[in-house]
Structure formats: structure tokens, C-alpha cells
Design goal:
The protein is an alpha/beta fold. The chain is built from 4 helices and 8 strands, in the order βαβββαβββαβα. The longest helix has 26 residues. The mean pLDDT is about 85.
């Protein structure tokens, strides 16, 4: 069983929790968020905490917070031999460099809690600082999606910008047409 701690309780973390909960080989053992009210929806399903000092030991620490908060969460995390990942499309993996095993787990999709998603249809872009970590991250990603791609930070950044442009431009044009 792969043990995961989710750090963050926003839209992506909500969907990751749901899809991993349905997986027979992954267990979300805890969810962290600095705001207690964001954890209310998880309280009856998994251990929660607002303190990074109370984080349980896991195989993966999946940081799913706003891009500008990744470094703050990472800097307070005691990961030992676990793999620390972030889910950002725009941030380099190197932001996690204080940890020995790092990587990126980036689902190429926009998320909202109101809309269900099918992770089997979502590409997951992965990156790691070692072949061993990359293999483990790929195993984790394959638990929820058949479309797993190894890409560099630069490739991920470009893909993210293209996806944001395509999504936002389409929405903008629909809004203008409606007006």
C-alpha cells in the first residue's frame, strides 16, 4: 500500500483525495491545510491537521497549494526518505531541493470542486531528481491515470502556459460572444 499525505485542501487536493481514496493500492493517511475550515469536508474520512509538525510519515508528500506557498510548506516539512512532490505546472522542481527525493506530479487539467473529473482521461506529467524516485512517482500516477508522461520543468512550464491560454482564451471568447 502506497501511503500519501496531501498538503493542501483546494480544488486539486479535493479531486486527488477522491481518486486516490477509490484506489485499492493508495491510502491517503492525512491531509494538511493551514486553515481549519478548509479541512471540514475531510474530517470524517481521513486524519487532518493544521500543523506541519504533526504530519505523519508517508511514502509521498504531495504539496497541492498555491504556487507561492510551495516553498513555505516544503521548508517546514520533515520528509526523511520520502518523496516530496508538488503539483504546479509553472514551478520548477528545484523549489523542493532541500529534500533528498523530490519530484513533480502535475495533472494537466483545470479543477473545480463542482465538476467531477475522470482521471483516466487526464494526462499526468511527472518529473524527479532520480531514476528511483521517477519510477515510484510513475507507479503512483498509474494508479489513477493511464496517461503518464515524463517531462522536464521547462516542458511542463510551456505546456502549462499553453493550457492556460487555450482554456482562458476560449472562456473569454465565449463571454464576449455572449455579450
Amino acid at each position: 500500500m502506497i501511503k500519501v499525505v496531501l498538503l493542501g485542501a483546494g480544488n486539486l487536493a479535493y479531486h486527488l483525495f477522491r481518486v486516490f481514496k477509490a484506489s485499492k493500492d493508495v491510502e491517503i493517511i492525512q491531509i494538511f491545510n493551514h486553515r481549519k475550515e478548509k479541512l471540514a469536508g475531510f474530517n470524517n474520512e481521513v486524519a487532518t491537521t493544521t500543523l506541519l509538525s504533526e504530519i505523519k510519515e508517508a511514502d509521498f508528500y504531495l504539496i497541492s497549494v498555491k504556487d507561492d506557498a510551495i516553498i513555505e510548506v516544503s521548508s517546514q516539512l520533515q520528509a526523511k526518505n520520502s518523496i516530496v512532490l508538488h503539483t504546479s505546472g509553472a514551478v520548477s522542481m528545484d523549489i523542493l531541493a532541500r529534500h533528498s527525493n523530490i519530484g513533480v506530479f502535475y495533472p494537466l487539467q483545470s479543477f473545480s470542486q463542482e465538476k467531477e473529473v475522470d482521471f483516466e482521461q487526464i494526462p499526468i506529467c511527472i518529473e524527479a531528481n532520480s531514476e528511483e524516485s521517477l519510477k515510484k512517482i510513475r507507479e503512483l500516477a498509474l494508479q489513477i491515470s493511464a496517461s503518464v508522461y515524463e517531462i522536464s520543468s521547462e516542458q511542463r512550464r510551456i505546456s502549462h502556459v499553453a493550457a492556460v491560454f487555450a482554456n482562458n482564451f476560449s472562456n473569454f471568447m465565449l463571454s464576449k460572444a455572449s455579450e
